[in-house]
Amino acid sequence: MPQAFNRFRLTGPNSHAVLAQSLKCVNDIDCIKNDKWVSLHKPKDLKDKDEYWQSISTASTPAQLPSNMIVGLVVKDPRLSRPSRRTKAKQESNTDTSIESLLTVPPYLSSSPLWDVKIHESIKKESMTNGQFVKHVTKNQLVPGEIDEHDPALQSVPIVLIQRSGSQNSEFKKIGMSICLFTYISNI
User: Fold this and answer.
1) N or C: at which end does the chain have fewer Cβ atoms within 10 angstroms?
2) Against a cut of 0.90, is the pTM above it?
3) Which segments of 82-188 are extended strands (E)?
């Protein structure tokens, strides 16, 4: 599948905090049953992946995560959780990450609908552009500025997160997280 994916690299100690605050996992298949691609691939372990993501989202830096860890998630459209004004993502200093959750990586964690060609085509046909998104939200919102996250017309997005290990060698990039998603969803 040439040119089928976009990869965004977030670099630095706050890259994990940015993802933890902006990505909201779908944890119930009923929430996404209106998405056409779900009929092609029933995402397994949504609830377990959401729980695992919540347990590792309190990590203060990507360096605390297992090296080169791959996490396949189905997330709510990131446009839904965009803050109304620019903010800085910071981890709460009073929360601790369980060492057990960092050391025990579930075997199903890297599985993702992102790897299926049929799902690529289905999402490509059904993908909502930014213009369609704004039009739908302004037409259907009850309170200005508030977006209903459970609106069945809004789509879920399968993504893959990859933890990048840091290096002491200056030729290599620093530690961070990579986000992989379908090319035609990158306008989100």
Assistant:
1) N
2) no
3) 156-164, 176-182
Of 67, 70, 68, 69, nearest to 112 by C-alpha is 70
Residue 93 region by backbone torsions, left for phi larger than 0, else alpha for psi between -120 and 50, else beta: alpha
CA nearest 26: which of 4, 45, 40?
45
Q: What is the length of the chain?
A: 188
Nearest partner of 15 among 162, 157, 170, 186, judged by Cα: 162
Look-up of token digits 């990450």: 97
pLDDT digits (tens, 9 = 90+) for 147-165: 666 676 677 888 999 998 8
> pLDDT (tens digit, 9 = 90+) per residue, 91-126?
665 566 667 767 778 888 888 888 787 877 777 777
Q: Considering only CA atoms, which of 84, 78, 188, 89 is closest in space to residue 146?
A: 84
Cα 40 to chain centroid distance, Å, stands at 20
74 has which bridge partners? 158
